[in-house]
Design brief:
By secondary structure, the protein is an alpha/beta fold. Helices cover 37% and strands 21% of the residues. The chain has a single domain, classed as UDP-N-acetylmuramoyl-L-alanine:D-glutamate ligase (3-Layer(aba) Sandwich), CATH 3.40.1190. Strands 3-2-1-4-5-6-7-8-9 form a nine-stranded mixed sheet, sandwiched between helices. Helix 2 packs parallel to helix 3, helix 3 runs parallel beside helix 4 and helix 5 packs across helix 6. Pathway: Cofactor biosynthesis; thiamine diphosphate biosynthesis; 4-amino-2-methyl-5-diphosphomethylpyrimidine from 5-amino-1-(5-phospho-D-ribosyl)imidazole: step 3/3. This is Bifunctional hydroxymethylpyrimidine kinase/phosphomethylpyrimidine kinase. InterPro entries: HMP/HMP-P_kinase_dom, PM/HMP-P_kinase-1, Ribokinase-like.
C-alpha cells in the first residue's frame, strides 16, 4: 500500500496531551496524513498551566529533522513552540532548505498565559522564521508581540495582516478568536482576502486550538489543497473540535481531536 501524505511537526511536547506535538499528531491522524515529530522542548504541563519548560539543544533538533526529512521525506512542515532565538534560527534554516510548504504557528504564550518564547527570540521570528513561512497563524496576543498592534476590530485584523506580510510570509491567518461575537479569522496574501466565520461555542475547554489549526492547515497542504482550501477545511475541523472540547483536571480541558470519529 502507498503511504499517506507525510507532515512533520517541529514543536514542544505537552505532557497533558492537549497542545503541542501531541495535539499535532492527533490532528494529523484524524485528517488522514502520517504525522512525524521533531521535539524542540519538553514542558511539564496540565489543565492548570505550564509548571516547567526545558528546550532541547539545537543539535538534537537539527538531528531529528534531518533524520526524518532525509529518509522519509515530507509534504508539509508545521512549526510551533521554538523557545529561543537559537532554535528559531536553526528551524528557519531547516525549513528554508526543505521543498515543502511550511505552516508557522508563532507560539508566544500558552492558553494560561505562560511564556513559551524568550523575548530575545522575537526578532529572529520576524526576520528569519516568518520569511520562510507559506502560512503564518498568529492569534491576537502574538500579533501584538510581533507587531506592537493591539487588534480590537475586524479592520484592525486587516492592518495586522499587512504588518505581518511585510516580514515576508506568503499568507497570513489572523485568528480573531479573542474578539467578541462570532469566531472570525482573516486569511490574506495581500491581494485577496478570505474571511472565515463560525459560531462561537460556549465551551471553555479550548486548550490546543492554535496547534490544532496550524496542523490541520499543514495536513490539507500535504494533501494537495490550495492555501485557501486548506485553511477553510482546517477552520471547519477546529470549530467541531472546540464544540466537542471536554473537561480534564481542574482547569481548561482540550479540544476533541477525534470528534469526527464520535459523531
Amino acid at each position: 500500500m502507498s503511504a499517506p501524505p507525510r507532515v512533520l511537526t517541529v514543536a514542544g511536547s505537552d505532557s497533558g496531551g492537549g497542545a503541542g506535538v501531541q495535539a499535532d499528531l492527533k490532528t494529523m491522524l484524524a485528517l488522514g496524513v502520517h504525522g512525524m515529530s521533531v521535539i524542540t522542548a519538553v514542558t511539564a504541563q496540565n489543565s492548570l498551566g505550564v509548571q516547567g519548560a526545558w528546550e532541547l539543544p539545537v543539535e538534537a533538533v537539527r538531528a531529528q529533522y534531518r533524520s526524518v526529512v532525509d529518509d522519509i521525506g515530507v509534504q508539509a512542515v508545521k512549526t510551533g513552540m521554538l523557545a529561543s532565538a537559537e532554535l528559531v534560527e536553526a528551524v528557519a534554516d531547516l525549513i528554508t532548505g526543505t521543498d515543502a510548504p511550511a505552516v508557522v504557528d508563532p507560539v508566544g504564550v500558552s492558553k494560561h498565559g505562560d511564556s513559551l518564547l524568550a523575548p530575545s527570540a522575537l526578532d529572529s521570528v520576524r526576520t528569519r522564521l516568518l520569511p520562510a513561512a507559506t502560512v503564518v497563524t498568529p492569534n491576537l496576543d502574538e500579533v501584538a508581540q510581533l507587531t506592537g498592534l493591539r487588534v480590537e476590530s475586524e479592520d484592525g485584523m486587516r492592518e495586522a495582516a499587512a504588518a505581518l506580510l511585510a516580514y515576508g510570509p506568503r499568507w497570513v491567518v489572523i485568528k480573531g478568536g479573542h474578539l467578541p461575537g462570532d469566531a472570525v479569522d482573516l486569511l490574506t496574501d495581500g491581494s485577496e482576502e478570505h474571511w472565515l466565520r463560525a459560531p462561537r461555542h460556549d465551551n471553555r475547554h479550548t486548550h490546543g486550538t492554535g496547534c490544532t489549526l496550524a496542523s490541520a492547515i499543514a495536513s490539507g497542504l500535504a494533501k494537495g489543497l490550495t492555501v485557501p482550501e486548506a485553511v477553510r477545511a482546517a477552520k471547519e475541523y477546529v470549530t467541531g473540535a472546540i464544540a466537542a472540547g471536554f473537561a480534564l483536571g481542574g482547569g481548561i480541558g482540550p479540544v476533541d481531536h477525534g470528534w469526527r470519529f464520535r459523531t
